Amino acid sequence: MSMNIAPPDHRDELQFILDDVYRRGLDQRDGALADYIPELARVEPESFGIAIATAKGKVYAVGDAEVAFTIQSVSKAFGYCLAIEQIGRAQVLQRVGVEPSGDAFNAIEFDPHTRRPYNPMVNAGAITVAGILHDRFGDGAFDFMMDRFSRAAGRPLGFDEKVYRSESETGHRNRAIAHLLLAGGIISEAVEAIVDLYFRQCSILVTAVDLARMGATLANMGENPMTGDQVFELQAVRDTQAVMFSCGMYDYSGNWIYDIGIPAKSGVGGGIVGVVNRQLGIGTYSPRLDRKGNSVRGVAAVAALSDELGLHAF
Ligand code: DON
Fold it and tell me: May I ask which residue range the UniProt record assigns to the signal sequence (predicted)?
């Protein structure tokens, strides 16, 4: 059963739990920085921050919760939400499935019957989503995403030009995936522009507090609880949380649901967003990753919070 988060007299208790989870997370010393995008290997490996934003608009934070990092694959969840809003779930489902793939995030695997990517949380699926948004908005697609992500965070987000360039110069595997998607009739011929949109969305800068607020916006049925802004559509929010639940942690997703039980999405920049429907968003940042591309301290922190606060869905 979940505790009632953040009535005023419990404020110190929640901060106390957060501080304790942070201290325990510091003991986690495994993992390595992502270096396949060269610029990602230049961050401070020991950074660690955790934030919680409640669906009533309160924010709790500890450690490096205001340190900016690139959102990377965490963007896939929010991009999917926008694609559903823009063209409807039936149209989106024709181009990308909702089945956990059990494969790594950068796998070159497609559903053999439909040629669709398995889900929108692996690179192939997220590039498909970028293709949907590019079809819709052309060169304006990135500004559209940036605007919505910023409104979900409740402030104008920044952009890391160096990480973007670094990925653009080295992202040949993603370009290969995009060409296979074109060959399968899943995305249009604007392959380079679509991949460019995908690289750009991955280079948006966020903090753990931003991720917690973006998570709280999903938890609060698409309305940012801090600003009252209706950022996302309710049906799209539901579909997004469902896919985060089953596919958000890549080939660790089954274990994640089993042990931790919270819809979540990770990124190789070191961020994780967690969403507890109607209750709160969690944001964590620590750039050392495990072999599946998930933040070691972030996974430990969300696991501990799930345990301490009784957040598991079952
Ligand atoms: O496409 C990539 O490889 C990166 N821009 C994002 C991958 C990612 O974040 C996977 N996460 N764990």
Answer: none
